[in-house]
Amino acid sequence: MRGRSVSPYLFLAFPVAILTVFTVGPTILGLALGFFDWSGSGPARFVGIGNYRSLVSDSRFWPALRNTLVFVLLSVPPSVVAGFLLATIVQARWFVGRTLVRTALFLPTVVSIIAVGVVWRWLLDSAGGLLPRAIVAVGFERSPDFLQGGPIVSWLPWLSWPMVSLIVIQVWRTAGYCMVLYLAALSGVNESLYEAAEVDGATRVGVLRNVTWPEVAPMTAFLMVTGVIGGLQVFDIVWAMTSATETDSTVTLNLYIFREFQQSRLGYSAAIGGVLFALTLVATMLQLRVMRRNAA
Amino acid sequence: MSSRAPHILTRLAAHAVVYAVAASMLLPFMWMVSTAVKTDLQALPREAAGEHVTFLPPGWPWEWRWGNFADAARAVSLWDFYQNSLVAAALTTLVAGVHNALAGFALAKFKFRGERAIFWLVMSTMMLPVQVSFIFAYIAAGRLGMVDNIQALVVPFAVSGFGIYSMKQAIATVPDSLLEAGRLDGMSDLELFWHVVRPIAWPTIAALGIFTFVASWNSFFWPLVVVDSVHSKTLPLAVAELSAGRYVQSWPVRMAAMTILTLPLIVVFVIFQRAFVRGVAMAAVKE
Fold first, then answer.
1. Residues B133 and B161 in one domain
2. Which residues does chain B have within 8 Å of residue A244's beta carbon, measured at their own beta carbons?
3. CA gap A19, A39 in Å, rounded
4. CATH number of the domain that B134 lies in?
5. Domains recognised in chain A with CATH numbers
6. Within chain B, how many helices (H) and strands (E) appear?
7. Where is the domain boundary, B33, B65, B97?
8. Contact B18 A86 (CB under 8 A)
9. d(CA A275, CA A55)
10. For residue range A211-240, what is the model confidence (pLDDT) as tens digits?
C-alpha cells in the first residue's frame, strides 16, 4: 500500500518478539543443545555427536522411535479413510440428521483428551480395564499373554495391547475431524462431474473411486501430512493412558523427551528432540511438495 | 452427490453405520456421566460383586448417588482449576486475537523493509515442534518471571504463526480501494484497522478466537512444563492427576469430577456447534 509508514513495524514488533523469544530462538538453541551435555545449571559441556551416538545404542530410544512410527502409520490412514467414507454418506441429499452426526463426531476434537482418556483408560487398561476383564471372564481360564505385556499376535511382536488402545483412541478422536474437513472439500466438487459419470454408466463405487476420491485429493494430502506431524508429536493421549504404568511398549519419542527433561539430562533430551525435528521436517517438506503439485 | 438416490435398503444401512459411529463418539461421555452417579459397587465389574461379568455398555445406575458430585468438589479444588483455565484461555484469546489481526494486517496491506524475512519467520514457526523449543522457552519464561503463574500460560501464546497467517489471508481480501478511501478521509492506520478491516475480517477473527480458546483450554504439554503448584494448575493437569488417583480413589467420584470438568465445554460446543466446527476446521478449509 503506502510507501513509508511506521505502522507495520509497530503492529509486528510484539508478535515478532514473542515468536523469537518463545519459538524460533528456543528451537535453534534446542537443536544446538543436542550437541552438549547439560543439567540445566552450571556450564554445558560440548560433546559433539556424543548424544546422538548414545541414542544409537540406547535400548529405550529404539522402542520409542518404533512406537511413534507404528502409532502414526496405523492411526493416520484409518482416520482419513473413515473420515472420507463417512463424509460421502453424510453429505448425500437423502441423509437425515446431518447436523446431529456432525456434532457427535466433532465432539472428541473439542473435549480435552486428558479427560476422555480417563474413561478410555478405565475401559481398555490392560490391568483392570473393563474390556480386558470381560475378555478374561468370557473365554479364558487365566489372563491371556497380551494383557500381561505380550504381543497380541506372535508375528507382530511390536503390537501390544496398550499400543492398540492408543491407536484406537487416536482414530476415535480424529476421524470426525477428517469427516468435517472432507465435507467442506466435497461441497466444492463440481456437480457436473457426477452427472457426466452417471451418463457414462458408472457404478456408485466407481464414481466414488474415480471421481470423488481424486477430486478431494488435496484434502487427503493435507489430512495425511498434518496427521503425520501431529502423530509424531503425540503426547497427551499417551500420558493420559499410561502415566503411572509407563512401559517400553508405549513410550513415544515425545514422552521420552519429557522424561529425560525431568531427569535433568537436557542435552540428551534435546538430541531426541533433534530426531523428532528431523522427522517433522521430512513430513513438512512432503506437505509443501504435495501442495505445490496441487497448485500447479 | 448423485441425482439418483440409492435403494432404500442401502440408504437404511448407510444411516445405521453412520449413526453407530456417531454413538460410539458419545459412548465414553455417556459412560462417564452414568458412572458419576453410581455407587462404588455398581461401578465395578460384576465379578467384584460376586457375579460373572456381564459386559454392558454404559450401564444404568440402579441406585443413583448424586453425592458423588459433592464428594468430588470437596476432594479437589475444582473451582480454582476452573478459574485458572478460564482466565488463561480468555486472556490468551483476547491478546492473541488483537495481535494476530494487527500482524496479519501489516503483512497483508503494507510494503516495508524486512517484510519477506518477517513473513518467513512467521511461517517457519508453524512447523517447529514444541518438543524442540520447550527447554529454552521454559528458561526464557523463567528469566521473564513467568513460571508457575497465569502469565506463563498466556504470553507465549499471545501470537501464533498460524493465527498471523490466517489473518493475513483473510485481510488480503479487503479491497485496497476501501483502505485508500479511508485514508483520504484522514483515518490513521489503527482507525483503518478498526473501522474497515475488522468488520470485513470478523468471521476469521471469530473463528480464530474459538480455535485459540479451545487450544488453550485443552493445552497440556506446556502447562505440564511450566506449572507445578496447585494454585496455578489448569483443568487438564488436574484431570491427569485425578485420573491417576491422586485426589480420590473412588471411580464414581473421579468420574463425577471429570463430568464437572468437561460438561460445560460440551454444552457450549453443542450450542455453538457451527461456529466451533468453522473455527477448528478453518485451517484446512482455506486450502
1. yes
2. 244-245
3. 26
4. 1.10.3720.10
5. 50-123+159-295 (1.10.3720.10)
6. 15, 0
7. B65
8. yes
9. 10
10. 889 889 888 988 998 899 999 999 988 888
Using CB atoms, pick whichever of B25, B103, B111 lies closest to residue A105.
B25
B23 contact residues in A (CB cutoff 8 A): 104
Q: What residues pair up with A36 in beta bridges, in sequence order?
A: A46
B192 CA: distance to closest CA in chain A (Å) = 11
Q: Is the pLDDT of residue A127 over 70?
A: no
CA distance A24 to chain B (A): 7
Q: Any CB–CB contact under 8 A between B99 and chain A? A: yes
Q: At B147, is the secondary structure helix, strand, or coil? A: coil
A239: closest chain B residue by CA: B240
- At residue A84, what is the residue type? F
Main-chain phi, psi angles of A160, to 5 degrees: -90, 165
pLDDT value for A178: 94
SS3 of residue A66 by DSSP: helix
User: Is the CB of residue A199 less than 8 Å from the CB of residue A232?
Assistant: no
- Domain end point (choices B45, B65, B85): B65
For residues B97 and B194, what is the distance between their CA atoms, to the nearest angstrom?
13
ipTM: 0.87
Specify whether the CB–CB gap between B176 and B197 falls below 8 A. Answer: no
pLDDT tens digits, B57-111: 445 666 677 888 888 888 777 888 889 999 999 999 999 999 999 999 999 999 9
CB A65 within 8 A of CB A275: yes
Sorted by sequence, the CB contacts under 8 Å of residue B184 that are 6+ apart come out as none
Query: Does residue B243 sit within a domain?
Result: yes
C-alpha cell at position B224: 505440564
Q: Do residue B33 and residue B106 come from a single domain?
A: no
| Nearest CB partner across the interface for B18, out of A9, A21, A89 | A89
Long-range contacts formed by B190-198: CB under 8 A, 24+ apart: B190/A7, B193/B101, B193/B102, B193/B105, B197/B101, B197/B105, B197/B109, B197/B171, B198/B101
Q: Are residues B2 and A194, on separate chains, in Cβ contact within 8 Å?
A: yes
- As a whole number of angstroms, the distance between CA A208 and CA A85 comes to 9
Q: Do A284 and B105 touch (CB under 8 A)?
A: no
Domain match, B140 and B210 both: yes
CB contact under 8 A, B132 and A31: yes
| Nearest Cα to Cα of residue A114 among B150, B59, B240 | B240
Pick from B253, B250, B105, B224: nearest CA to B165: B105
The answer to whether the beta carbons of residues B145 and B220 sit under 8 Å apart is no
Buried b (16+ CB within 10 A) or exposed e, B50-78: eeebeeeeebebeeebeebbebbeebbeb
Q: What per-residue confidence (pLDDT) applies to B137? A: 96
Q: Does residue B15 lie within any of the structural domains?
A: yes
Sequence letter at residue A116? V
Same domain for B142 and B23, yes or no, is no
Domain boundaries, position B39: 8-65
Same domain, B231 and B273: yes
Domain assignment present for B45: yes
Query: First CA to last CA across chain A, in angstroms?
Result: 28
Which pTM does this prediction carry?
Answer: 0.88
Alpha-carbon distance of B270 to B263, in angstroms, equals: 10
Q: How many domains does chain B have?
A: 2
DSSP state of B6: P
Question: Do residue B122 and residue B228 come from a single domain?
Answer: yes
B183:A109 CB<8 A: no
Residue B159 shares a structural domain with residue B103: yes
